[in-house]
Structures are given as structure tokens and as C-alpha cells.
Amino acid sequence: MRLSPDEMIFLRDGLFKLNATIVYTWGLMLALTVGSTLVTRNLSLGPTRSRWQNLLEIIVTGIVKQIEDVGLRDPKKYLGFLGTLFLFVASANLCAIIPGYEPPTGSLSTTAALALCVLVAVPLFGIEEQGLGEYLKTYTEPTIIMLPFNIISELSRTLALAVRLFGNMMSGTMILAILLTITPFIFPIMMSALGLLTGMVQAYIFTILAAVYIAAVTRGRDPRGEADTKIDV
Amino acid sequence: MDNATLIAIASIFTAGLTIALGSIGPALGEGRAVATALSSLAQQPDAAATITRTLFVGLAMIESIAIYCFVVSMILIFANPFWTHFVAEAAGK
Lengths: 233, 93
Fold this sequence. Notes:
The complex is a heterodimer of chains A (about 230) and B (about 90). Chain A contains eight helices and two strands, in the order E-E-H-H-H-H-H-H-H-H. By secondary structure, chain A is mainly alpha-helical. Chain A has one domain (about 5-230). In chain A, helix 2 (about 50-70) crosses helix 3, helix 4 runs antiparallel to helix 6 and helix 4 runs parallel beside helix 7. Helix content of chain B is about 90%, strand content about 0%. Chain B is built from three helices and no strands. At the A-B interface, helix 6 and helix 7 of A face helix 2 of B.
């Protein structure tokens, strides 16, 4: 039994291996890029809009609203990063209804790459917002004793992000494969519907957690930010 | 009983134990989280959006503990490093 789409190899040339993860990732990237380019080629500001523009507007405004709800004051600034994460993970998970397709998020390489993006992006956003000194100071809060623990938590939450997405997607395909051998009628359909739901929830969770991490470093000790937190809690 | 049998027994037994014990805690935790969220929803239906969002994020974080156990048990069964090492050694002999 295959544990991840990494092991499904289409082409091999020496050290270079073209596995299913790479193929499907690039396919998705192509589909997303070409699709959004085609839709945004002629946008209209008037009351009549094409249905595709409506679809994209719903998605984009939905993401902006969710980012804002988490507590980021300037959601448009983070839309590029967080929106890309959400769209990629969501489309990777949703395309699982296409026969023969395996979600590239079911491979630890993909999810680790995505989690590393978050690991790098969070300090960058923090430094941009507060300055290097202020950002580094957040590591020593509340006391200097907490410094190693803060660094460990930074790393462990990256690991958690990667393993969570990988585990959820991998377990989905795994359970489906096991069920197909036991009860190959109707029941796998229900489980794959559940898998689609899990995929969407995981895409949402991934994005929201990244947004929460960014919010935690950009909020800083801004008094207005503190007030926001209190209302949220 | 040779080494291969021992490794196989230990791996399979531990995989079962991992997923069995590892799903008890998250199950209890998720039950508590959902129960509390439902009673808060009943008390404050206005805050439904916030409660639901926090519930989903929280559930995913609790659930990920069970998922870690699942990943570990899958590694034990399908990608066991000790087993691979032993098989490679046996093949080399």
C-alpha cells in the first residue's frame, strides 16, 4: 500500500524522479494561474458581472473577511500569502473527487514546504510591522527564561502544521483504500464525501492558524491590538 | 523466535496500542469541546460565528493529536526503519 503520492513515479532519469506529487502540484498551479488569469482578463465594475468574476469575488471577499475576523487589522496586505495558501490547499484537497488524482497535500514534502513558508513568513511580517529589535524582544516575553521555549514552540508548531495536514489527507486516502477492499459499495462514497469535508476544514484551519501566528507577531504591544484581543476572547 | 518475528510483533502490537490509546484522549477532549460550544451557542446565539470558528480551529488542533498517533502507527506498519534495516541486512547476507 502506498503511504503517499511520492511513491507513484511517472518518469525516472538517474537521480531525477517525476512523481505524482510534483505532477499534480504543477497541474494545480497551472490550473489556478490560468483560470484566474482568464477570469480577471476583463473585469467589470458595473452591475453586470460574469459568473466567474462573481465566484472569484465571493472567494476573495470571504478570505478577507475571515482574515479580518482573526484580528489582522490590514487584511489586504496578507491576502496574497494567506489567500494563496488557502486556495492551493483547498483546491488540492477538493480535486480528490477527480478519479486517478491523488492530493499532493497527502505527501509530507508538500505540507512541509507549506509549513516552512509559514515559518519564514511569520517573522518577516513581524519584523516589517514592529522592526527587528521589537520583534526579537517578543521572544523574551514574559521573561528571558522563556526564550528557548518560545523558539521551540515556533519550530514545533511548524511541525504540527505540516503533520496535521499530511496526516489528515493521508488518513483520508488510506481509509478509502482499506474500505474499498472490505466493502466496495456505497460506503466508500460516504467516506470520500467526509474526506472532502475534512479537506476543506483542513485548508481553512491551515490558513487560519497561519493568520493567527501572523496576528500574534504583528499585534505586538499596540494598545489598540490589546483591546482587540480582549473583545475577541 | 528470530529477530524479524520480534520486530514484526513489536511493530504491529505497538501500532495498535498507539492508535488505541492515542484516540482516547482526543475523543474525550473533542467531546468536551463540542459540549461546551453547544451550551455556549444555546446561551448566546448571536456569537455563533465566533464560537463556530473557534470550535473548528480548536477541534482541528485537538484532532491533530490523534492524527499524530495515526501517523506514527502508519510509519510503524508501512515505513518501519528497523524493519527496513533488517530486511536490507538479510538481503545483503
